Amino acid sequence: MAINKNHEFEDIDGIKCAIVEKNATPERVQFLTALLSFNKYQVVVAGSPAPKAVVPAPASIPESADATEPTKVVPEVPDVPAAPTTFTVGVTDLTFNPTNSVFGRSLKTTDGHIVTLSYWQQKDTISDDSIPYFDHK
């Protein structure tokens, strides 16, 4: 059981994992898998469950002129868009916490720089750790 929302645990494919991110896109999964594997974490990825579709209520029965003849109501079913393919990413190290790892400066990029918040969020392609995150404008 998690102490707070920032440190979640879940069984992914039968393996107890610390959750890194839920509802991640395939591109985000590739980025996180490469980064966490480089930092010697065993990464587990599984498809996120599809969101529940909202089914509208059936249309109201129109009043017919002849009450003896039953009316047949066929509800209109709207086109439901395909569920987006998202994934849940976790690591087998239950002490891993993404927030603590980024702000604690314990993760490194493949070129040896410390992972910054903007690099983790994929806003920057290069991790510039020479300027602290709180001095970025």
SSE blueprint and pairings:
Elements: E1 9-12, E2 15-24, H1 26-38, E3 43-47, E4 87-91, H2 98-103, H3 117-120
What does this structure look like?
The chain has 137 residues and is of the alpha+beta class. The protein has helices at 26-38, 98-103, 117-120, and strands spanning 9-12, 15-24, 43-47, 87-91. Strands 1-2-4-3 form a four-stranded antiparallel beta sheet, with helices on one face. The mean pLDDT is 80.
Q: Give the neighbour order of strands across the main sheet.
A: 1-2-4-3
Q: Mind describing the biggest β-sheet?
A: 4 strands, antiparallel
Q: Helices and strands: which structural class?
A: alpha+beta
Order of helices and strands: EEHEEHH
**Record field, number of beta strands:** 4
Unreliable spans are none
First-last Cα distance: 38 Å
In short:
By secondary structure, the protein is α+β, with helices and mostly antiparallel strands. It is built from three helices and four strands. It has helices at 26-38, 98-103, 117-120; strands at 9-12, 15-24, 43-47, 87-91.
Which features does this protein show?
137 residues; alpha+beta; 17% helix; elongated
